[in-house]
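ugh ok fine here u go
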Amino acid sequence: MTWEDGRARAALRALFDAAVASADPRLVLAGHLPEPPRDGRVVVVGAGKSAAVMAAAVEAAWADTPLSGVVVTRYGHRHPTARIEVLEAAHPVPDAAGAAAARRILAAVQGLTARDLVLFLVSGGGSSLTTLPAEGLSLDELMAVNRALLASGATIHEMNCIRRHLSAFSGGRLALAAAPARVVTLAISDVPGDDPAVIASGPTVPDPTSFAEARALVAHHRMELPERVAAHLAAAAEETPKPGDPRLAGAEYRFIATPRMALEAAAEAARGLGLAPLILGDALEGEAREVGKVLAGIALSAAAHGQPLAAPCVLLSGGETTVTIARGEAGGRGGRNGECLLGCAVALSGAPGIWALMGDTDGIDGSESNAGAIAAPDTLARAAAAGLDPRAVLARHDSWGVFSALGDLLETGPTLTNVNDFRAVLVAG
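structure:
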């Protein structure tokens, strides 16, 4: 059976949908809940793009369990709840609502006893949504740092090392505030390697990094920080709790969805569509356009030589790429997935029989409203006919402009989950 354009696009969308469905809290959260305490309180708090729908899933599973709490999610990601309050704040650049939400969450876990349970619901975006400055720093200063981080080319691990050392909420501080209550974290991972200290900057887990490491990363990426922020990092007055800290000994951490689980779900869906899947990895990182170029090279090898597997096949990968914007350079419209996809399309140079979809599983790629986009064998030809030069567009980080003009944006709306980026390259042969 031949693979024509409509069939290939439908297959790629089906794989993306399968990956997202595997991380839907309404389907997977209940099986990971602990036993509620018999004679203590249940306080539910949370932060992230999935926080509201996770809270709704807890309410549904514990319909007869008394509970209260508050969670914060991104603007537009609200989901109806009855007993757990839902707040909204800005992402990826934080705002005052996020700082206020962090204070509300910290207040909600004060004064508890060892008989009580704190259930922390965490997902991607939690760092920005709970940006609470350390003592002596202002929200404006942390917002400036966040903008610098997003433009620096730093990995998510590096960003969160710096964030933890400027925060009054992350890096284990929420768990310290909740002590001596039992703390159980239910997490949807959106980071390469599923490191609990990196997901939302680890509010309930020990921090293995130090102020010295944060300063080294700032120097490595040549970041210009506000004067008081630099002074705070230099002073290193209050280090985060480290592994082995007895105050966090009783904290538990449970993953309910991860990038690997999502890729495995997509692989199973691919088999049902007659495609041989190959998962290249769930933690691919690097400059977005360069990762796209590498994926194109693997796809061309599969098409020409049947290596690393024969067509019809699909190459699946996850992880988080970066887009480095040079100092003084104006960024265009679009996110890392669009840039990775355009880099892939340029490298494929119109090779027949190869389609690709790249998108963020939360439904939002960068600052626009699309999750990502789809590229086809004729993407470059159609762009040229529309008077667009994809290479020039790539140079100014404006991938959204190309895929929007071609009608190839992947638009899902907020998915209310987030297991990082999803990339699928279909090689029809």
